[in-house]
Amino acid sequence: MHLSSNMRVLVINVARIGDTLLSTPVITALHQQLPEGTVDVVVHSGRKSVLEHLPGIRKLIGLTPKQLWWKRIFFKEKYDIAIVYGNDQSLLKLARKKATYTIGFKQNDERSNRLLDCAVPKPNQLMHAVHERLLLLAPLDIQTDKLELSYVVTPKETAWAEQWLMRQGVHQVGLVGLQMASFPTKSYRDWPFERFSELVSGMLTRWPDLQFIVLGDKQSVQRAHDLSVAYPGKIISAAGKLSLRKSAAVMSHLSLYIGVDTGPTHLAGAMKIPMVSMYHCFHRGEFLAPLQHPYLEVVEHPALIARREAPMAELSASLVINAVERLSHRLPANHPMHPEQE
Asked: What is the mean pLDDT of the chain?
């Protein structure tokens, strides 16, 4: 397929927060290749805010699977190319109806494959999730060396977050964000509360002026409470209190982010926050951790064999503390956790 600079392209990626962010290098690459064209993106309605204000997107179209039937009828715009992520046949039908040429990964049934003009074979071995998504640009002869995730916090959001943190009693010595839980269907990726408690204890021994803020949704509320009881005056909770964009704005003020493999961890990577991320052996960081991030330490589960049932408790607090220590030496000299600030 020959790509012209004025083409209209539709990217369809109805997914969770992390998978939505993992597609941003694709959007960036398309935008660079289409200086006179347009890139519109179909996302899950609940994840639409993840891509707001991102350069290169003309229009964001939010939908849920239940809305697909009427979107195909009332969504009138037409495109030269549609790029589809996922195996949902209704998404493939949407692409087929709206675009002259459709691209997606090869499907498991021939009926679905017939909806694609170009069915790209899925890789026969594991590769990083960003590289895998970029495979769908190969039929357009698009290559890119910009692999970092993207997210934009507006100046208004930044100012709001600063005021919110002041009301919570946050000072400017150093604020560490903790993402203590993934989501219920993949709770095996969660690091136990006891390990987080050991982590906070070890970090306060090393950096006694730090404060910690527990991020996440309502399932992290109890964890945040228990941690604040164990470390009075050191723990702030944002769990279950903030929208995604307000949570991201608060995260933009962090000195360090530490979290398990879930959406906010991809978000921290997209904002280039200094971070230590932990990965289960069934979903290793070598395939999911942010690429081209200047201040990142990846902590992999110690198991050599990928087993879903492997307990995250096997990943010790000392491994994470050691990663934080390594990272502190690479941070800018004016960072509150850099050795020169002690």
From this structure: 92
